[in-house]
Amino acid sequence: xxxxxxxxGLIGKNIGYSFSKNYFSEKFLxxxxxxxxxxxxxxxxxxxxxxxxxxxxxxxxxxxxxYKEKVIRYLSEIDSDAKQIGAVNTIKVNIDNTLIGYNxxxxxxxxxxxxxxxxxxKKALILGTGGASKAIAYALEKLNIEAKKVSRKKVDAExxxxxxxxxxINDCQIIxxxxxxxxxxEIENYPDIPYHYITKKHICYxxxxxxNETVFLKKSKQNKAFIINGLNMLKIQAEExxxxxxx
Length: 247
Prior knowledge:
This protein is α/β, with parallel strands linked by helices. Helix content is 30%, strand content 22%. The protein has eight helices and twelve strands. The longest helix is centred in the last third of the chain and has 15 residues, at 231-245. The mean pLDDT is 94.
């Protein structure tokens, strides 16, 4: 008797580089889940989501840039954490085709950061104000770490890049890059912050995982900071998505 076919996938734009497809395809192969497959759904517009949803074997979706906020209007229901964050990265497709939105990014961030923090890590700087920064801000709140967002425009952020000085860098012992600056193939890019004020007391975290060490991380490491890239966070959020789809 053949098992029910189950399709999962990633919704995004220009996602040929996708971590998720490789991760889940390897997982299915390793665990002999021959009835499961994972596909990239590269959409020019979120309005094309309807075409993806026509797949009768579709059970779950991951959502990436630039649709984590735009996808919300298509959902039947949204989990309370995702609602507070204002961004969704996981969708469960129910038997009746209703869609429930969740956010597992913040869980991935908490679980990958928590082992490395101590009592001196009370404040953080979040570089960037996009969809990813929302999950990070929510996660830091859960960890009782005060966070300030940094941006070129002082619209959604508390601090401009130009305002970052020795006092502000010293005051915030965790610095997280949530911008795409430094992502493959444009690996020479990096956030414009005064790296010379970073010390061995700092944790510098980059959500980027390709390359393994961005310029942001290299510059931070040169000043003895503890550095973390986004790979472990991605693995954790993927497994959290898997739990949701199979719950």
